[in-house]
Amino acid sequence: xxxxxxxxxxxxxxxxxxxxxxxxxxxxxxxxxxxxxxxxxxxxxxxxxxxxxxxxxxxxxxxxxxxxxxxxxxxxxxxxxxxxxxxxxxxxxxxxxxxxxxxxxxxxxxxxxxxxxxxxxxxxxxxxxxxxxxxxxxxxxxxxxxxxxxxxxxxxxxxxxxxxxxxxxxxxxxxxxxxxxxxxxxxxxxxxxxxxxxxxxxxxxxxxxxxxxxxxxxxxxxxxxxxxxxxxxxxxxxxxxxxxxxxxxxxxxxxxxxxxxxxxxxxxxxxxxxxxxxxxxxxxxxxxxxxxxxxxxxxxxxxxxxxxxxxxxxxxxxxxxxxxxxxx
Length: 328
Fold this sequence. Notes:
The structure is a single chain. The strands form three sheets. Strands 6-5-9-7-10-8 form a six-stranded parallel beta sheet, sandwiched between helices. It has a two-stranded antiparallel sheet with strand order 1-2. A two-stranded antiparallel ribbon has the order 3-4. It is built from nine helices and ten strands. The protein is of the alpha/beta class. The longest helix is centred in the last third of the chain and has 17 residues. Helices cover about 20% and strands about 10% of the residues. The protein is globular, with a radius of gyration of 20 Å.
């Protein structure tokens, strides 16, 4: 696998950032994307016949001229993405997931499935009954949360976005003592499908009021600082782009079910917090789907890291508001 190198990133960076910006994807198993900038700059989508670059964000299709060089990622579960009707197509990263994996489906609200007949379906959303993936895999049904989620009395549930997961959990010391169950197969996982809402924070609330969505059990992810270049007013740095959130969920699911390969270095620069990840060595004659995490889903960030490189080559990112959002 040809992976993105720091040297390539360094050559593409805006001069003002060469000295002080670390490449967050160092060590990740992401295919080389430099071919996207060679040859013709735009192509015609074979379905809608519109001019596009890299992929068609309306049809969720890779452009035919590039399709055979774009990686495909096999996921251990299914992923549904529910888009708000006002979410701007060309600015959303959810299309990345749909193109890079056949296990992903994108729906435009309110035209969404009825999940009541499916088991093992979870929604990524902060609610009073949300649980972390680590606790879910250990058979726990709820987290012990601080009073009012650790918020001041004048705040409410809607403000949970401004708090990190480890700030709302009441620490009773049992997490560090927890002996994590090791799963033997993907079929054993209690999670069969994860649903994401692709919208701004305010827009997501209107989707969450839909009974088909609201009845789903909810999970929350651990703290990870976003590398998304688009600013969203009023959100902290750990409010992730949709494709980052999908990668984070799959990362946590895999690590806490099958372990983390101690030789994997993809998390070193990613600014992600994983509580007590079980370190496990690879096993011989075992399917990669259940091997300890060693970048199996990193190619979900194939387009994201490429666009990140372009943004950092065109702009002095120290001036972008997205990277000035609070991290504490």
